[in-house]
TrEMBL record:
<comment type="function">
    <text>Tubulin-folding protein; involved in the second step of the tubulin folding pathway.</text>
</comment>
<comment type="similarity">
    <text>Belongs to the TBCE family.</text>
</comment>
<dbReference type="GO" id="GO:0005856">
    <property type="term" value="C:cytoskeleton"/>
</dbReference>
<dbReference type="Pfam" id="PF14580">
    <property type="entry name" value="LRR_9"/>
</dbReference>
<keyword id="KW-0963">Cytoplasm</keyword>
<keyword id="KW-0206">Cytoskeleton</keyword>
<feature type="domain" description="Ubiquitin-like">
    <location>
        <begin position="448"/>
        <end position="527"/>
    </location>
</feature>
<dbReference type="InterPro" id="IPR000938">
    <property type="entry name" value="CAP-Gly_domain"/>
</dbReference>
<dbReference type="InterPro" id="IPR000626">
    <property type="entry name" value="Ubiquitin-like_dom"/>
</dbReference>
<dbReference type="Pfam" id="PF01302">
    <property type="entry name" value="CAP_GLY"/>
</dbReference>
<dbReference type="InterPro" id="IPR029071">
    <property type="entry name" value="Ubiquitin-like_domsf"/>
</dbReference>
<dbReference type="InterPro" id="IPR032675">
    <property type="entry name" value="LRR_dom_sf"/>
</dbReference>
<protein>
    <recommendedName>
        <fullName>Tubulin-specific chaperone E</fullName>
    </recommendedName>
</protein>
<dbReference type="InterPro" id="IPR044079">
    <property type="entry name" value="Ubl_TBCE"/>
</dbReference>
<dbReference type="GO" id="GO:0007010">
    <property type="term" value="P:cytoskeleton organization"/>
</dbReference>
<keyword id="KW-0433">Leucine-rich repeat</keyword>
<keyword id="KW-0677">Repeat</keyword>
Length: 529
């Protein structure tokens, strides 16, 4: 039965939507819906008669059956991919005869020896990739288990698999399957609950990107994935989620990127997966995040184990969503690039400090460590202190007061800055001198007065220099080369500050500016070579 099958025509993928005649022409035609609608000509209607339907108005066309490649079975693809089939052996000279002078000698049993060697090689395969090998079906029953007994990892992406049933048929012959990638196969999934089998009983990683699966279908299949730890579901047009009850309880990573979720509240429906540590939501249409079960300064019961969250390329425009992330009890790493709220602050370092100040347990922000050992005292401390100062006037205006008995900031202020009271407890309420209007960012205001010392060369007198805080370490080394006549590649820089109490912070990245290391006026740069 060709209807519903996936086919390849040249390099273009399509799904068969119609098999039959198309008058007035003679013979059988296949009506196909192309993955790339630009390849098509119509929506399945020809000469006023609708033969099939397409999602795109020009996504369909008719082709003759002999133009369609319906694919090969799994084992044939494996043999082709790894050069282990009979045809390739013959092409490469594995023949049964050998010529000695004028005599031709035939080697009896050479075919069976070659076959045994192939079997041994196939049985040694643990990790198999048949990406883009036109796999469409499982093949003869028990042939896979007899031939490839040691497979643990299979990449079946971008093939011609048209149903989850085919995937199950292949997997049923792989006893220890741990990783399976079937991304890029547009296929049909079960629409009703099926009996739970042990086919995927050892599966830990499953990729279903660009398969057309819905969240409802995920939940129908999930009882068969009792040990699943990582699930990838990108680019499936998933809009609505449902709560997984007694399924997916072992899941540690879930990737829903490139699905346009209806709203941020959809996340509440997956918030009680007990072991979920990584949630990837890049370009998922999210405009806001909130955890209504917890008040300001409290931790939510949602996502109890979540350590890593990626929300890049979304529509989050309000800082209140970043405040909400502080409620996540286990969050350590955040990616949030390309969201509108980031446009509210032009200085990238200030932006970084604001995010760090709002999320108390954060260790990694946008792939850059917050708590690097050498800079923990200054970088994090400065971020929190800076945050406390720049919103000090707002705190006063909202009812904040240096006198604890009169300190009563409004609910609106606490909603916008839920961590502010705890920062005041730690660093003290901002003093009046700290709350003077911010000076405009002119070059003069950004110059740092630094003392430069060579601790191992006492004959070199300390010098004072005014350097822009945006100056990279590489440029500082260039300046020191002119001063000391020592090549920059040989210089090792660090700095000390009165706030560091005798500790040194290494300036170890030539591409970073001085402000990255939170250097302030009066600090001392130490030069060694």
């Amino acid at each position: 039965e060709a209807l519903g099958r996936r086919v390849l025509c040249g390099t273009e993928y399509a799904t068969v939507r119609y098999v039959g005649s198309v008058p007035p022409t003679a013979g059988i035609w296949l009506g196909v819906e192309w993955d790339d609608p630009q390849r098509g000509k119509h929506d399945g209607t020809y000469e006023g008669t609708q033969y099939f339907k397409c999602q795109h108005p020009r996504g369909g066309s008719f082709i003759r059956p002999n133009k369609a490649n319906f694919g090969v079975d799994f084992l044939t693809a494996v043999k082709n991919r790894y050069g282990l089939n009979e045809e390739q052996d013959a092409q490469h000279g594995t023949e049964n005869t050998l010529v000695f002078g004028k005599k031709t000698v035939e080697f009896v049993g050479m075919d069976s020896i070659a076959e045994q060697q192939r079997q041994v090689q196939l049985n040694q395969l643990v990790d198999i990739s048949v990406h883009e090998c036109a796999v469409s079906h499982a093949g003869q029953k028990e042939e896979i288990s007899r031939t490839c007994a040691n497979i643990r990892h299979i990449n079946l992406s971008k093939n011609l698999i048209s149903s989850w049933e085919t995937v199950t048929a292949i997997a049923s012959e792989v006893q220890n399957l741990e990783t399976l990638n079937v991304s890029g196969n547009k296929m049909k999934f079960p629409s009703t609950s099926t009996s739970v089998s042990s086919v995927f009983s050892k599966l830990r990683v499953l990729a279903l990107n660009q398969t057309g699966i819905t969240w409802t279908e995920v939940l129908l299949c999930a009882p068969g994935w009792p040990r699943l730890e990582e699930l990838y579901l990108t680019s499936n047009n998933i809009m609505v989620l449902e709560r997984p009850d007694n399924i997916l309880q072992t899941l540690k990573l879930l990737d829903l990127s490139d699905n346009q979720l209806l709203d941020g509240n959809q996340l509440h429906l997956i918030a009680h997966l007990p072991r979920l540590e990584q949630l990837i939501l890049r370009n998922s249409g999210i405009a806001s995040i909130d955890f209504p079960d917890a008040g300001f300064g409290c931790k939510t019961k949602m996502f109890p184990s979540l350590k890593y969250l990626a929300i890049n390329d979304n529509k989050i425009s309000q800082w209140s969503s970043i405040n909400e992330l502080d409620k996540l009890p286990s969050l350590r790493s955040l990616q949030c690039h390309n969201n509108p709220f980031m446009d509210t602050e032009k200085n990238p370092e200030t932006l970084r400090q604001l995010i760090i100040a709002k999320i108390s347990q954060l260790e990694v922000l946008n792939k850059s460590e917050v708590r690097v050992i050498s800079t923990i005292c200054m970088s994090l401390g400065k971020a929190l202190n800076h945050y406390r100062k720049i919103f000090g006037n707002d705190w006063l205006a909202a009812g904040g007061n240096w006198n604890p008995e009169k300190n009563n900031p409004s609910e609106e202020f606490l909603a916008a800055h839920p961590r502010y009271p705890s920062l005041c407890l730690k660093y003290g309420a901002p003093e009046e001198g700290e709350l003077k209007a911010q000076q405009p960012l002119t070059l003069k205001n950004q110059l740092l007065t630094l003392t430069i010392k060579c601790p191992e060369k006492p004959e070199q007198k300390p010098v004072q220099k005014k350097l822009p805080e945006s100056m990279t370490i590489q440029r500082v080394k260039g300046l020191l080369y002119r001063l000391l006549k020592i090549p920059g590649s040989e210089l090792k820089l660090s700095y000390e500050s009165s706030k560091l109490e005798g500790k040194e912070v290494e300036l170890d990245n030539d591409l970073k500016p001085l402000q990255f290391y939170s250097i302030e006026n009066g600090d001392c740069v130490l030069v060694r070579w």
